[in-house]
């Protein structure tokens, strides 16, 4: 049984206008194996999964499930077969409880309402991710929300669990807990399909992998026998750089901060907002400062305060250069040199129904050299707008049918590349970014990091707020964390060992308690602690 296919998708093709998203794809998954689906942005992974889960109809091909042809026309059909899917973006109602959310998602498949809560409790405990069914979603951490989505799948007679980029929102401890659950499922014969751009995790967890390129299967491998670099090569080919040298900023003394935030506190507007408490922060021209943290700890509120989405006429806590900006709108702040990449790419980063030309114009029209000439006396200069969109598409290797493509038709990673390119091309003085390479493939990550570092070296102040610790360690010159609306101290990145950052993320804001020869052990490696920590200018201690 173990060597037989649980799932065989064969000859799957799907054509979108101007793009063949899946081209004669075959995917085999055996009983009780953890299978990775890899591929660069736009390779066709999400399309294939949407076909399997009944969200998209293929033009051609068939699905064999436990040896029999299956007809999957909607998600309920997939669930009835035992296929569960956890999407990148959770679809949970904040004000409802865990049990109410699961009952809504599963409908009749949730079974008897009277026993649902006890089944949730029992199943979540059985798989090592305990949940209290009566808790409201708004009180849960991101890791706990993901548990709700997984337990929702496990309540059914699950035979295949599909996870799309499941670890990008988790802390390192939560990732290990998730892997334990997935291995337990595998032991019980359940198959797992794991979609990820984090190749070291794929190498640690997965038994086999299928690699897609430009809509076709380009290869297979056994991740445990490959290095992450070798897998990256299979995904992106030989021509794309897959690593960056660490190049920390060389700042000379006496440079004034471009961004300074002093004693910023906010009052929550919505029921689930976090109050920022006495935030002190600074970013100099020519440095990249990173803020780590588990989602929902005030990142959103800090971004809104800095971008001007939430203004505060009563305070004078935030300055760009020597200008107080608290009461200024986003447009006025952009005129002072702000560029902004929000976490939510569809909706805040781009307007889904607008094409790439219109989306390029949205934030560039009023901005410095780039915006110059895009309109004149109220008339839009279409040729110049098209040239700008084409420049971003070419330079940032955005895969799209053309500048007329709607933002919503781009794959997640490609839209992210477009938004980052649009903002970097404005040559800002202050680049504010949330989770800049979320869902972006390894080749594009390297290109984006290089572009950010180049901008820094030209004197831009860069602030990155991210849950991706690998990314923060790679590009930031100084690092701190946010927890419950408060900021930790900031130290030069090379003086922040992972355990210290983990403590800061959990709200323990002490500086290293280091004797000169002290060291932490992290992931089996000894990590020396700094002996002379320096705090950032004014960071709260
Ligand atoms: N609704 C749509 N209309 C037009 N084109 C689409 C649509 N959905 C996807 N595409 C195109 O199909 C191709 C494959 O997209 P898909 O989302 O499957 O890629 P992916 O491998 O999941 O990428 P990523 O890693 O960035 O999420 C992309 O070029 C995308 O632009």
Question: Could you characterize what this model shows?
Answer:
The protein folds into two domains: 5-236, P-loop containing nucleotide triphosphate hydrolases (Rossmann fold), CATH 3.40.50; 263-528, 3-Layer(aba) Sandwich (Rossmann fold), CATH 3.40.50. It is built from 17 helices and 25 strands. Strands 13, 16, 19, 20, 21, 22 and 23 form a seven-stranded mixed beta sheet that branches. Strands 6-7-8-3-9-10 form a six-stranded mixed beta sheet, sandwiched between helices. Helix 7 (199-205) packs across helix 8. The protein starts with a strand and ends in a 13-residue tail after the last strand. Adenosine-5'-triphosphate (ATP) is lined by residues 16-17, 19, 21, 39, 41-47, 399, 409-414, 439. Residues 532-541 have a biased composition (Polar residues). It holds the Pfam family ABC_tran. Residues 7-239, 259-509 form the ABC transporter domain.
